[in-house]
Amino acid sequence: MAGATMTTTAVVVVAAGRGTRVEASTGGSASARPKQYRLLAGRPVLSHSLAVLSRHPAITAVVVVRHPDDHALYEEAAAPYADKLVAPVAGGATRQASVLAGLEALTALPGGAPDRVLIHDAARPFLSATLIDDLIAALDASPGAIAAEPVADTLKRADANGRIAATVDRSALWRAQTPQGFHFDAIRDAHRKAADANRHDFTDDAALAEWVGLPVQLVASSGTNMKLTTAADMDLAERILGAATAWETRVGSGFDVHSVAEGDHVWLCGVKIPHTHRLDGHSDADVGLHALTDALLGAIGDGDIGYHFPPSDEQWRGAASRIFLAHAVDLVRLRGGRITNVDVTLLCEAPKVGPHRPEMSATIAEILGIGPDRVGIKATTMERLGFIGRGEGIAAMASATVQLPTAAS
What we know:
This protein is α/β, with parallel strands linked by helices. It contains 13 helices and 18 strands. The chain folds into 2 domains: 9-244, Spore Coat Polysaccharide Biosynthesis Protein SpsA, Chain A (Alpha-Beta Complex); 247-405, CATH 3.30.1330.50.
């Protein structure tokens, strides 16, 4: 209709948390990835939501609120969806503060604030386009609408001793989920009012909307829109995605060789080993990681290490070969793939590889994001035959097994 204007809808994705319960349940440490960046079916958890949001025709902009320490992890997860993403913003001390930071970022968009906003937790990777449609439709008749699931279990109220005190009527009870959608100005102003009143205790945006008197419509969701909180949740999500995705298995191989030169150490499979010579090459000449990089690139049909990192490019002179391997890993993940296992065989007379094998396995596993039990490291001599047998060089062979989603998936 002439003169009509399109209603715009933006999204705030809250991804600033630390995921301590997942780490605690897996025996992880503070250096482990926060749960929103843990790999799920080969991709960071955050990527699953961003994929759905970026493809939805009604979504005009997405801003991710992240922890300041997570810049590299965010870039890894968000790179394929940059078209609809605006610059990420730093989160606050609470989820509520993080949401307000995201809302303020949308307020400052060059084209002005959106008409509506969906607020979604990054730890819910099973967001669907249908649920987004239902929430947006509900906002035509209500200033607020949230995804929610009717409570199916019988509920008990406990006394101070942990005994049942009463059975709770569940007929009108719902479990709140995200996304939670609102008319933009109304929820932004509600968040500002709560901040001014020093109220930081609201557990979700719908509770804050209730506080200021905004009606909120319940939109039926399902148990598949689960929030990942514990390691068991991560395992269940992996099984769900594995059952829903058709995978094809790819195998790639790689080979590399470098001659020796004057020096006092060699780099092999990411480990610095004292030696009578060094390996001669444009980078650190790590034949193990070079061969493995080519194996991964071969599995996804994306050229070789020289194509991605030309030796004529001075920026790679003396570079650590783990950079090359990490790039190949990123390319696998951008295709939605996952690395099943890798195997490296080093061909040399010296140095002895056996004492360094555990460190090599751990280093490669860390770069690939898989367990050390999925990394094979072997070594063999050439029985003093040929240039390797004469100690004039070291070579490596590698293979990599990768699973990629089929085109239908």
